[in-house]
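Table S2 (continued). Query chain:
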Amino acid sequence: MLGPIYLVLFALLSVAIFLALAVGPVSLSFTQIWASLLGEGSAVTDTILYNIRAPRMLLGVIVGASLAISGASLQGLLRNPLADPGLIGITAGASLAVVFVIVLGDVFVGTLSPLILSAVHPVAAFLGGITVTFIVLLTARLGGQFSAGRLILVGVAITAIASALIGIIIYLSNDQQLRELTFWTMGSLAKSNWNTVLIACFIMAAASLMLLRYRRELDLLQLGERAAFHAGVEV
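Corresponding output:
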């Protein structure tokens, strides 16, 4: 049954990739794209395809795959088919860090070079997310025993606290900062280039390989922490 589903999903992904390369202010036909891939395209087509649209398309695919892998892993860990990073506060922690940098970060990052400034937001988001992850995991292991229920409860509490702090910081922001916050929360692939694609590819590949090592453990956790422990999982 899964075979046809995978074929349909692959076909839909292929169509989405083609549309991402073809549709835009300057439309490209399949013939133009194919000629460019063969090295026979015009200079204008090559510029649009390789410098603008291809990096954005590939980064979108990589980000989507990363979200799918992280979501599936958390669903196995929490035994909840609706689980995602937002459920245990990771998204809120990342957002709080970026909001703090945008609104109050001029004192710390205002004198940095534009090249470093371009990396401040993703680094802040990563640090905020990883900090919340450690807090939630440490709290979930209180008493020496891991509890998925406690993990979710702590995540919900952190999300509420982070959301309140974000509201306070946004209240202190000016119009320009509020505009920047709005566009950041919406997300964008506009600044994609081959460097960002390579960095995202490396991070996703490393994380995916680590998660694949624990696929058996994640499957056993579906039986519950106690049953997984007796099956040899270091819960």
